[in-house]
Fold OsmC family protein.
Amino acid sequence: MECTIKWLDGVTFVAETGSGHLVTMDGAPDAGGRNLAPRPMEMMLAGAGGCSAFDVVLILRRGRHDVRDCEVRLVAERADSDPKVFTRIGFHYRITGHKLKPEAVERAIHLSADKYCSASVMLGKTASIEHTWEIVEAD
């Protein structure tokens, strides 16, 4: 895996991923940015959420569960001093489907957290991570 980061101006950067996708990152105005794009640490948090959501949906589908939607809300706290690593991250999953079994959803989340989601496992080296979830019955 590879990625190239190019400085545009101020504290605005564009990343080109190894798969050829572009992602812009920017800083807050008080850091010289123009607030045009997510901060790098926001990208890390989003990456962990995306990684885990991907796992959970895939695990449920492979188990032939009728999953229709998956939303993950992450709330993180960071250290007060540099390096301002994540110290706590809460993942809350809202899984929508038809007759989803709570034990299947819980198992999928635990498999993602403990085995498959490389991003959250990495972040777990500095942060305490909590997973909560709810099931919404599909119409």
The mean pLDDT is 97. The first helix runs from residue 40 to 62.
